Amino acid sequence: MPNSQATRYHVPMTLLPAAEPPFDPAWLDTLAGACRSLTAATPRLQDLYLERRLELKACDIAGSCHAEESRSEGAAVRWRYPSRSTLHARTGCSPPALEDLLSRHARRTVLPRVRPAAPVEIDPPPEWRDWAASTLARARGRHCTVRYLARRAAVVSPDRWTAVSSPPLVRVELAGEPPVALLAVWGQPRLEPWLSELLAPAPARRWRPDPGLELPVLMGSGTAGVLLHELIGHLVESDLVLSGDSPLAALSGAAVSAVAIDLADDPCRGDLPGAFSCDDEGVAAVPLPLVRAGRLVGWLCDGDGARRLGAPDGRGRRASWARPPVPRLSNLVVAPGTTDPDDLQRGVREGLLVTRLGGATVDPLSGRIVLRVERGWELRQGRRRRPLEPFELTGGALDVLAHIEPVVGSDPTPDWRLGWCVKDGVPLPTGSEAPTLLVHRLEVL
Fold first, then answer.
1. pTM
2. pLDDT tens, 131-172?
3. Among 197, 266, 233, 329, residue whose Cα is nearest residue 11
4. Which of 149, 161, 305, 297 is nearest to 241 (CA)?
5. β-bridge mates for residue 360, sequence order
6. Beta strands 44-61; 64-80: pairing state
7. How far apart are CA 370 and CA 354, in angstroms?
8. 212-239 burial, b if ≥16 CB within 10 A, otherwise e?
């Protein structure tokens, strides 16, 4: 079904700064030379991954801001056999630690005894502590934790090394039932209004729709990005596609949505939490179209998945140096349409408006999605009537995609609530930006 409102995705203007290497470039050259000598025999060295991390944690203790700092570093080596690969990891990046990793499946590797100092240390901006103290003061009376997260990494292969850069993140966590949190890039212009929304108390009198009801649901305030993260983002990851567990595995080139919408995975969006300069296998970041005019056109692949599917790589991501790279989404960006979201709301006679989600999951085998609604409104005759209390919505993935209204909102909005994406127990920062979308049918659990 053609849709004149759909627009082509193009590279945005918000880009990451140049990547800073985590270690001295000459030292990384030395490591690349050592790796070069370990490729002739079986198993052959595939890559050496090095990472440094900084985490700052601030919380309120007896009315004052208490801050803790944690710095860590580690490394991992992947060895390639004809039919499989193995990973060995350890904490620390000293010459003896790296010699141990590089010698696991090969002759003894000898490195210089002294590692040069890193060119630039990972340090928080000087204003972060004041901002954290101010945030804690605004949340006084509620148990609040503020975190600053930063990392630098390098992928060393036998022929070169590549620095991996990602933006520093801030996470604000509020304890409660349920707990709520915010994740954003440090310096994001919308951080303060998002924080105000996080800290705002829930409405006093709220309403819950009856279980079993099937209602139209207007996904506003960026929540459509979370919906499509589950419906498209996870289901086009190459490990699920290759195993046949994804309901989209056999639909390459086919129409997967009633709306001629465009979706892309974009790690170059430096204002969203999933950004990176290159993935954790050393492949430069580029936007990747996933759906074009409603048709499935792309898979999210790490190196192994790319070879087996004949698709572009560049989405091999690691949760830490102790984990192997796996195919995962970065930032899901949905192209806007031209319809005012208020016009979409006015067209709903009886339904729901969702403005905040507290979680979302998809079961690839059953194809069912579950959305945990935190905030929203009952809609009657296109008007907001009663605020919603937390509850869950569900639907079949392909059925939900088939029942998205072809008219798309003109309001691309980032989601700030669900920045950590967990799959198989492995958390990674991701982001999304999406306009308002109307799903004609979701079931209340």
1. 0.94
2. 999 999 999 888 999 999 999 999 999 999 999 999 999 999
3. 266
4. 305
5. 371
6. antiparallel
7. 14
8. eeebbbbbbbbbbbbbbbbbbbbbbbbb
